[in-house]
Each structure stands twice: as C-alpha cells, then as structure tokens.
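INFO worker-7 received task bundle
INFO bundle size: 2
INFO processing item 0
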Amino acid sequence: MLRQVLFFVFLLFFQFISAQYINVDDQRSAQDLVENVLLNNTGCASVSNFSVSGGNFGNGENSYGYFNAVGTTFPFQEGLILSNGRVNDIPGPNAGVISGSAINWAGLDANSATVLGENNTYNATTLEFDFVPLVDHMSFEYIFASEEYETSLMCTYSDVFGFLLKKASDPDSAYVNIALVPGTTTPVKVTTVHPQGSCPAQNEQFFDTFNGFNAPVDFQGQTVALIAESDVVPNETYHIKLIIADDQDDVYDSAVFLRAGSFEISTDLGDDRIISNGNPACGQEEITLDAGVADTYQWYKNGTLLNGEINQILTVT
C-alpha cells in the first residue's frame, strides 16, 4: 500500500514538474505558423508568399516552430518561436547554457545585415510573408529571450534579431526594423535592454527576469512582452521578414517568441451577437458596425450583397 501511495505521489510530482515547462512543435510549416498561429483574424486578413529558413541539424529538427505554455508562468500561452538554435532545446528547466548551433549555417542576408547594422553573424532563422492590411496600423506582441543575459555578457554581447517591414507594392521601398525599444529608434537587444550588471542598466523597465532553474524556458533571461508596430496604408501589399541570428560567435542561443493571435492587420467588428454566446440582439435593437478606416466597402448579409451600402459604418437591426 505504501509503495502505491509513493508511486502516486511520484506521478503527481512528475506531472507538476512537466507542466512547468513549455511544449514545442518544430514541424510546422511557414504557412501554418502564420495563418493558424500568428494571425488574429484569418477570415478578413490577406496573407501569402510564405517562406521559412533556418538550421539544418541533420535529423529533422528545426530552429523555428510552435510553442504552448498553458499551465506555465510564461507570459504568452501559445505562439511561434524563431531561434538561432534547436527549438527542441528551448523548453525548461533552465539547466545550463544551451548552444544548439554546433552545426553552423548562414547568417543574415546582405540586405538584412545592412538594415540591422550587423556584419558578423551566423545561424540566421527567417520567417517571411506578404500581407494586405485592412487598417492603418499593424502590430504584434513578442518576447526576446537569451542565454546572453548574464551579468558578465549582457554589456558586450547580444544576438541580433529584427522585424523588417517594407511596402512590397513599391519597388523603391526599403526595409525598416520595427523591433524597437518603445519610444525610441533603438533595436531591442541584450545590450540595449538589461538591468545593472558590470555596466549601467539600459532600458531596465523592459527587462522582465533572470530565470531560475524551474523556469518554463531554458534561457537565462528575457524581456517583458513588447509590441512591434507600424503605420500602414490599407489595401497595400507589405512584406515582413522576421529574423534572428547569432552575432560575433555561434554559441549562447537566443529566441524570439511571438504571441498567438496578436498580428493585428484587419478590422474587428466586435463580438458575434448570437444566442449561443448569450448576447443576441433583442427586438429592434440597433447595432453599429464600424470598419475602422474611411474607405469604400461591400457589406453582405448571409452571403448576399447589400446594394448601396458602401460606407465605413453600417447600422443593422
């Protein structure tokens, strides 16, 4: 009987420990990660031209993928990961320095290196796609985590990452990095976001924590949840390149976590007013639908075009 009780306690303890760490899946395609993980509203959003590249570890493992952190203390419940090492090395515990880049591959492409001002890089992972926004502002949430968040390293060394945006429909458009310290034009890096160590603190309010042994992820430290954002022109095609790489050396892995459903490029007309949600429209109650951007629209009811309804705002009963 005692043996059974001890075995039961062990199982509970094992399940508790396992639940502390994120789960990852490094077999998702670029299209799946964008359409089914990153986007907030796939019904209205237009996305295309997906591609992803990263490490070839010779055994089917990848440097990009999906994560689920439900039941852990990680700030995002789920999303996608880009890393300069193996995604399968990222789940906790934080047992030591991970350096999944033993098999080196190419660093930043020439264009990205110029935009980010980094010329000595290795092990780049890049996710790219086109999108057509229906609103005049786009944004998404992310966290940067790194093994270089050590008091002896964070003043000097930082892997590089960026979210590079340009207007694809304009041949003269140049990439702009939107992964910036809030309120500045400074790129987010270990050396630009950290508490005091062997050098003065830099933008310390955007640093979250140094991770202990039982952290959900195997990184020494991470930023708070940050927002990448930019003004855009509705109905224009944009190209975005999400990229991370080792800088100066091929050790000390880093990763950027993008929150699922946070890529905002379409209009939110509000909650569905239906019986199953417990909030149906009552009687002759008027409901105002606002597309959010002044433009010409086509409104439909049950798949049928509403003739003459072309404005930004539609009132229905």
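INFO item 0 finished
INFO processing item 1
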Amino acid sequence: MVHLRKLTDADWRPLREIRLATLADSPSAFGSTYAQEAEFGEADWRGRLTQRTYFLASDGPGGEAFGVAAGKAGDGEWTLHSMWVAPAARGRGVAARLIKAVADEAAAHGAPVLALQVAESNTGARRAYERLGFVATGEWETVPSMRRERMVRSLT
C-alpha cells in the first residue's frame, strides 16, 4: 500500500534522504548533483520546505520513502518539481498518486494549470506525464546540463 504525506517544515531529514536518493538514481534529470546537495545543511533543506509543497510516498507512516513530488505556486499556475519514484516502486501507480496530490493542492489554491519541465532525454517520464493528462507545449528551455520541454495539465 502506498502512503502519501505532505511534508512540514520539520521534515528536512526525510526530504534530504529522498532528494539524495533521487540524485543518486537519476543524476542527469534534475539539474543538480548528489555531491552538491550532500553538502547542504539543515537550513538549506528547511528552506526548500518553505519554498515548495512536498509530498512523500512510502509503505506507511515511518516507512522508507520511495517517491517524492513538489509543487510551487507562481505566475498564475503551479509547477510540478522534483518528481521521482524509486526504480523498485515504478509501475505501481506511485507517480500518479504523487502528481494527484500536487494537482489537488494546486487546485485548492485556485491554480488553473499544473506545469512541469521534462528533460528531452527522459522519454519514460514524458510518456508517464502524457498518460496523466499533461500536454507538450513546444516551449523548450536549455539549461547547462539538459534541454527541457514545458508540459501543462488543466486543473479546471
């Protein structure tokens, strides 16, 4: 069974653990590195928790986390950030549950759209996002480590 919980400002350690697992598994997908973020201190992690709304997937309260997604409000829409599911948990609907949690949070705050950026090379993620109602916009952004396309999903 998948247990989702919304992280609070006290949850910096679980956020750190899942983020480092994310970067260890998928270093080219997130525009950062394990080495960089392993150096972050408590204040850095707590700061992230105040900038975004995070949801964590685990087998139960206190169980090991195997998925994360974050949402952030801005410019009349919410953006999905840091979406990741551990390889062993993929194919179980975890991504759909995490995205639904972020979409519900965004809709509760009045956002009409949930947007994201997906790496050009991450075809698996792109297919998953399309199955979950996201549509490619044709808007591309190139950052130092990757080229990303914007995708959107209506929340209305």
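INFO item 1 finished
INFO post-check item 1: Residues 3-154 form a domain with the Aminopeptidase fold (CATH 3.40.630.30).
INFO post-check item 1: DSSP finds five helices and seven strands in the chain.
INFO worker-7 idle
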